[in-house]
Task: structure prediction
Amino acid sequence: MLVAGRWHLCDDGVTRPLLQANVVAAQGRAVAEDLLIDSGADRTVLSATCLSRLRLPADNAPPGVALSGIGGRSEFVLVQTALELVQVDGGALRVRGEFACFTDPTATDFSVLGWDVLDLFDLIISRPRNEVFLVAAGHRYRVEPL
Result:
């Protein structure tokens, strides 16, 4: 399995690794969402904008629990959904689970793909080669001298 991401020049002038996925919304609709690949994030968190487009029922976060990162603490809710990752060959893999969603629209510009999903793959992020890949069963990679 090979999923290709891309390097994206953001509004602030910084180029970041992104992966587009479909998030399963109410009535099984697919909502396209750009996910920032964050190798420092423990979990995947969908943006507040994505949450509003999903129109899914949400559960409150456990009492006393908040997401925290460089920007500080952020409130969130939990939704049951699936991320559909489109493979280079056109196939798709669905990762189902309970995903956190920011409730504050200013918390982040992008949804974040964290280790709860990334742990399923080998992650290749190469700025010099302009490549972003998730690699799993059926594919492999090799590092060798030139």
